Amino acid sequence: MKRLISVILVLFFLCSCNKDSRSKLTISEDISYEIKLDNIASTELNAILYYQIGVGKSSVEENFYWKDKVVYDQSPAVGGFGRLTYPEDSYKKLVKLGKKQGIFNELHPKELDEYYSNERYEVFVSKNGEVKDLYFLIDDKLKLLSVVLDIHEEDLYILDATDSNLICGDKIIYNIDIESMTYKTIELPFMSPDLIDNNMVYGAYIKDNIMYLNQYNINTDDSKLLSISVDNIIKIEKLAKLGDTIIALCTEGESYQPILLYFDADFNIKDRKKISVSSEYDFVSSYCEGRMIKQYEDKLYGVFGVNGKRINELVIIDISTGKLLFQAEIYHKKKNGRYLENITFIKETNNKLITIPQYDISGESI
C-alpha cells in the first residue's frame, strides 16, 4: 500500500511539473528549450512559435506558446497558424456575425491571412485575391471594408495602428480610417517601409558597403534619399528608433554576426555595437531573421539563427546599450526537418490578446 501511495505521489508530481498552475498550459515536450542567459526580471511580450515542415499541401504546421520564459504547447484559447494568430473566441464571433449579417456563408481560418487587435477593435484580413476583405470587430459589431490592391501588391501586411487608424500595405500604404471605414493610398518612392514613426516612413538597404536610406514624410510628401558609407556590413535586418536616434540592426560581413549601428539626426554613424551572442553548435547570425524581430519600447525581441542548423536563439536586446538581456536556444527535437517559419509577438492585457504591429515602436497600449 505504501508503495502504491508513493507511485501515485510521484506521478502527481511529474504531472504537476508539466503544467503551469495559473494558465493550465502544458509545457511542451517537443521543443528543446534551454535558457543560456537571463538578465531580465520579466518579459513584457509573449510569442507564438510557428514550426513548419515541407511546402504546399503536404506541409505540416505546429504552434507553440512562449510565455514567462517557458515554451508551452499551443494555448487552447489561441488558434491560427503562421503570422495568423488569433483568439478562438474572436474567430467564432466573426463567423457568427458574418453569417448573421449575410457577409459570408462560411469562413475557414485558411481563408484568412492577418489578424490584429488592440483595446478598441480587432481585425481579420482575407487571404486571396486582388480585393482584400477586412473584418472589423468593434463594440460587438462586425464591419466590413474591402480594399482594392494596387497591381504591384500581393499582400496586405498590418504595419502600424492606432485607435483611429490602421496602416497596411507594403510599397503602397493603405491608411484606413476606422470611424468612416474608408481608406486612402500612399505610394512610397523607391522603397518598402522598414520603420514607421508617426508621419515618417523609413526604408533602407545596403549594397557594396553603401547604406541607402530613404526618409519619407507622409503629410508633406517630401522624400530624402541618403547614401551612407558603412564598413563590413552586408545586410540590414531591422530599423529601430529611440528618440531622435535611428538604429539599424545589421549583419556584419565575414562573421555574419549581429551588430547595431547608431545614427544621429543627420544620419552620421555615431556608434557601433556588436551584439555578443553565441552557441556551442556554431556561430549565431541575424542574417535573414530580421522579419522575426520586433521593437517594443527600448528593446528588440526576436530570433537569431545558428549557422547551418535548424536551431534558433530567442533573444531580448537592450537597444540603447546593445547588450543581450535574454537568450534561449530552441529547436524542434522530435520531428526532423522542422524549422521555425515565423514568430508572432503578443501581449496579454486584461485577459485580451494584443498583437504587436510590424513597425509599432511606442510600446504603449494603443
What does this protein structure show overall?
The protein is 8% helix and 51% strand. It has two helices and 29 strands. The strands form seven sheets. Strands 1, 23, 24, 25, 26 and 27 form a six-stranded antiparallel β-sheet that branches. A five-stranded antiparallel β-sheet has the order 4-3-2-28-29, with no helix packed on it. A four-stranded antiparallel β-sheet has the order 7-8-9-10. With 366 residues, the protein is mainly beta. The longest helix is centred in the N-terminal third of the chain and has 16 residues, at 2-17. A hairpin with a 4-residue loop joins β8 (121-126) and β9. 34% of the residues are buried.
Observed structural traits:
51% strand, 366 residues, mainly beta, disordered C terminus, six-stranded antiparallel sheet, globular, 2 helices
Low-confidence stretches: 1-22, 362-366
Enumerate how many helices there are, as a single number.
2
The percent range for strand residues is over 45%
Determine the N-to-C terminus distance: 59 Å
Portion of residues in helices?
under 10%
Shape: globular
Quick check: average pLDDT? 83
Taking the sheet with the most strands, its summary is:
6 strands, antiparallel
Q: Provide the structure class.
A: mainly beta
- Rounded to an integer in angstroms, the radius of gyration calculated over CA atoms is 22 Å
Beta strand count: 29
Secondary-structure map with pairings?
Elements: H1 2-17, E1 31-38, E2 46-53, E3 60-67, E4 70-73, E5 78-81, E6 84-87, H2 88-100, E7 112-117, E8 121-126, E9 131-138, E10 141-148, E11 157-161, E12 165-169, E13 172-177, E14 182-187, E15 195-197, E16 200-207, E17 210-217, E18 223-229, E19 233-242, E20 245-252, E21 258-263, E22 269-274, E23 284-285, E24 294-296, E25 299-306, E26 312-318, E27 324-332, E28 339-349, E29 352-355
Antiparallel strand pairs: 1-27, 2-3, 2-28, 3-4, 5-6, 7-8, 8-9, 9-10, 11-12, 12-13, 13-14, 15-16, 16-17, 17-18, 19-20, 20-21, 21-22, 23-25, 24-25, 25-26, 26-27, 28-29
